[in-house]
Amino acid sequence: MGDYGSFERRAHFEYVPMPGGAAAIQKPWRMALSYIYALLGREGVIKHLPFLSQAKEEKIRIILRQIDQKINSPLTSSCGRLFDGVSALLGLCHSVSYEGQAAVELEMIADPREEGVYEFFLEEEEGKEIIRLKPVIEGILGDMEIGTIPSVISGKFHNTLVKIGGAVCQRISGQGGPKKVVLTGGVFQNRLLSERMKAALEKAGFEVLTHRRVPCNDGGLSLGQAVIANFISS
After folding, report:
1. Which of 5, 70, 120, 142 has the most crowded Cβ, counting Cβ within 10 A?
2. Is the pLDDT confidence value at 105 over 70?
3. How far is 136 from 118, CA to CA, in rounded Å?
4. What is the maximum span of the chain, computed from C-alpha positions, in angstroms?
5. Is there a contact between 98 and 137 (Cβ–Cβ < 8 Å)?
6. Which H or E run contains 130?
7. CA dihedral of 9, 10, 14, 20, whole degrees rounded to 10
8. Model confidence pLDDT, tens digit, residues 146-169
9. Beta bridge partners of 132
10. Is residue 2, in this structure, part of any structural domain at all?
């Protein structure tokens, strides 16, 4: 929540490690492993090893040790890393050859007719709404175990993010926050997500602003910084 002069972070996804830092972006299977380990524990990793078949068990043990010892494993709450992890879990993209590849491939297979969602919950912590993802990851893994096709899982995942966005905005608005919402950041290059999020928020009574002339990803970052610097210095 903010304006040109200041901002306040009111909600975010819960933090998980990025084992290897930038290497986790290049190899999304690391994020898949991190989400399972952070949210389901070592037992969850053992149970779901078949879904991590792109990595040898010895490599997985090294990564888990890296996370445990907090060696080059910065924490992230990025929605982009969540897309990476889910894409790798579904076997779509284990390593990337261009920026955003894992997320793009996840979007491309999503069944637009799917209406299901995964469970999640919000938990207030130090004045912020923390989006807890354990039920989402459990739901995805559960669907995979019973043979649900990836297109359906991707559709449910996208629907879940839309539902999360609506729930967070409603919670903040109910606490005196604004009824105006800006959809920005690299994940909103995803047309399925951006269009459904916009429609859901407008239906809930929010005014929704989206990008038209400036890209929503890092391409618009420097312009935004310049605008903010201008307002702060003037």
Report:
1. 120
2. yes
3. 5
4. 59
5. no
6. strand 128-132
7. -10
8. 999 999 999 999 999 999 999 999
9. 121
10. no
Q: Model-level pTM greater than 0.85?
A: yes
* Structural domain contains residue 6: no
What's the domain count of the chain? 1
Contact 117, 159 (CB under 8 A): yes
Q: What values do phi and psi take at 24, rounded to 5?
A: -70, -25
CA–CA separation, 145 vs 120, rounded Å?
19
Q: Is residue 3 part of a domain?
A: no
Q: Look up tokens 């999020």; give the residue.
A: 197
Which pair of tokens denotes residue 131? 């989006």
Domain presence at residue 16: yes
Determine how many CB atoms are found less than 10 A away from the CB of residue 222.
Answer: 9
CATH number at residue 37: 3.30.420.40
Domain extent at residue 20? 11-233
Rounded to 5 degrees, what angle do the CA atoms 5, 179, 129 make? 80
* 138: CB partners within 8 A, 6+ apart: 39, 40
Residue with tokens 């982009």: 80
Evaluate if residue 234 carries a pLDDT over 70: no
CB atoms inside a 10 Å sphere around CB 102? 28
